Amino acid sequence: MKRAIAGLMSLALMTGGILAAPTAFAAERAGTCNVDAGAPAQRGAGTMTADKSTYKPGDVVTLTGTGFRPLIDAYLSLDSNTANWPKDQSAGSSLKIYDDYDQALYLRDSDLGGSFTTKVVLPKLDDDFTTGKHTITLVGIDYSGRPTIMKNVEFWVNESGESTAFCGADNH
Questions:
Q1: Which helix (DSSP H) or strand (DSSP E) does residue 29 occupy?
Q2: CB count, 10 Å around CB of 81?
């Protein structure tokens, strides 16, 4: 069935001249806004906050975490691993993507004490990272080797980075 649908779509594109607008920008112009960030359940001690509530695509987000137990490993995921981080994080804290796994940014060992501040670069708009609500999740692994901490921070993304603009924290 999937092959049949794919074949029909290919045929329609080749013969019908269907024009597909870029979904990232079309969504905002059409008045739609993603309001489901898909955040995993939180667990463990500590809190994580972002410096703003609304950002533009490609902006740098400053994350602050406090009240954590010491961790041996920690990483940040975006939208429950459904969106990829940009490989170039040099505008932020130069966090590294682990083994070409674009969905996890690893915190450096020096950031793994009871508190941390780090900066991450958001992706540009695409099919997986659209205007609307998003979540960054800290996954912390303790000395037992198990993920014992999951903390989320929710934020909004729109083309202006203004919270009062459409798809901002104050207008969705």
A1: helix 23-29
A2: 15
Q: Which residues of 43-69 are buried (b: 16+ CB within 10 A; e: fewer)?
A: ebebebebeeebbbbebebebebeebe
> What's phi and psi for 10, nearest 5 deg?
-60, -45
Q: Report which residue type is found at 30.
A: A
Contacts of 44 (CB under 8 A, 6+ apart): 68, 69, 140, 148, 149, 150, 151
3-state secondary structure 31-88: CCCECCCCCCCCECCCEEEECCCEECCCCEEEEEEECCCCCCEEEEEECCCCCCCCCC
pLDDT (average), residues 23-35: 57
- pLDDT per residue as tens digits for the range 89-125: 999 998 888 766 778 999 876 566 788 899 999 999 9
